[in-house]
alpha-1,2-Mannosidase (Gouania willdenowi), 619 residues
Amino acid sequence: MLPPSRQDYVSISLAGAGAGSYNNSKQWRRQSCWRKWKQLSRLQRSLILCVLVLLFICGIASYPTVTEHIRGNALCAAHPKHSSLSVSLKLNTTGGACLFLVFRKKLSNRRGPPVLQNRLHRRGNISDPTLHEEKSADRKKGEDKGVISLSLCVCVCVCVCVSLIVAVWLEAVREAFRHAWRGYKDFAWGHDELRPISKSYSEWFGLGLTLIDALDTMWIMGLKEEFEEAKAWVASELSFNRNVDVNLFESTIRILGGLLSTYHLTGDTLFLDKAKDIGSRLMPAFNTPSKIPYSDVNIGKGTAHPPRWTSDSTVAEVTSIQLEFRELSRLTQEPQYQASVAEIMQQVHKLDGKLDGLVPMFINTNSGQFTHQGIYTLGARADSYYEYLLKQWIQGGRKEDQLLEDYLQAMEGVKKNMLQKSSPNGLTFVGELSHGQFSPKMDHLVCFLPGTLALGAHFGLPADHMELAKELMETCYQMYVQMETGLSPEIVHFNMHQGSVRDIEVKLADRHNLLRPETVESLFYLYRFTKDHKYRQWGWEVLQNFNKYTKVSSGGFTSINNVRDPEYPSPRDKMESFFLGETLKYLYLLFSDEPDLISLDHYVFNTEAHPLPIWPASA
Ligand code: DMJ
């Protein structure tokens, strides 16, 4: 059995009027109640309102049945214990179902209901069995109807209450975003990343990375004012004509992807023009002997190069830029973007060195061959290769069979070589392989996989992908729950030996949390496809812990060094752009009830959570 999830009951304290002098006037009492009410959190107020509404509706719905019973009980006072109606309400804001309603209707053991029996008794007509049975049947029907309508009302009430609570969670994500944005605006405006503790910024490419990554999130959250400010900066300040080296993969997924999705959501050609500009400036990266791109490009000079210490590129990096460049070709009707990234997929498809569809982590830009062979992971340096096989297939209208075959083969490879269960609780996890040796190590990055598997199953891939997605989702959740801060570390190791005390171990060097999105990303997919409320509940717990351990009061959120020390999680003084681009966006979409807000039948998310359209059949 897994340990029970954290139970955060909402405590509502209405005791004691405080230290002030006692005054029991009506007006004082009214003011005091009002003040108490205002002091409650939004969640607490919503819960109280929920309970009141629920009780009111239950009261109205059960009125006829209850009065009937009261009459019945009055008439059959000799047998009061035979008939009872009980409605009990248990409210738990963190348990799986959120609200549990137990409605119990205990019918009398006697053949006729009490009212009828008494009437018959009084009339001295008790010996007429036909009349007795007919009336008894009528009565039973009436009672059943009452029970059904009451149950219906209770269901409606539960739905209303759950929606109210989730609306509060949705607003809490918006508030977290606003807080993050405030910090960025005050101390890092126009720079790449906020350093919230030192109230300054860090530069990676010097292109306003956080601002661009966050554009579509603001649009989706309806933060119009913030969006307009950011748009004005893009229009007047953002220039790619700069003598800077940028990483091809990172600038493609964050900048090109962010601009393309914002263009699609808003229809504003400003973003398309900027996307074309950065897209064309990244093209020199593909001028290599093998056509496998270099990792770095100088977007001002138009030159590209590998990192100083190697001529290798990372497999995940060169195979996770396809959605963006394909879309750029479709929009501009210029084929070179799509051709360049398709060439990479063709080559990787044919390469030796795979294990059951699993790829090594590095590829050489001169030879076009895999290097560092024999090491396989679903984590850093390989992760999004698998994600983009499936997502390209979806983007292109599910016609490109080779992509699908590679994806299906790789997932079989995962099942055959990388899946194991932990001890003592049997959590399913994805480990790593090094020259035939299995290592029970799993990066938080691997938590993209439940979402990707679920997405495939949604588009008709084998149903067991969905089952595996659910198992892995539980594991990723446990990577949070089992830490003292309720936040996952960067890397975990699972115990596999019989008799282990705990499933998850964390090495000292792996205890950091960078505000990464993968788990909430998968929660979003799992909730969309299953509608199981527990996934929202888990997302809410994660958000609360981000608020508790990573929020910086002067604005922004910070990565932390130690998820195992709730007393001093040790801030790292950096807010990654993906916290706004991905983590908060997925949380918002997880809690949103708008069915068409980025429908997964019309959009596919790039690996930085920027939604791009699924191409229409004619494309
Ligand atoms: C993001 O930039 C992307 O999600 C990428 O695919 C992996 N790393 C970060 C988030 O963890």
User: Anything to note?
Assistant: Residues 261 and 267 are 10 Å apart (CA to CA). Residues 384, 445, 516-517, 578, 582, 607-608 surround 1-deoxymannojirimycin (CB under 6 Å). Residues 1-25, 72-127 have pLDDT under 50 and may be disordered. The longest helix spans residues 129-187.
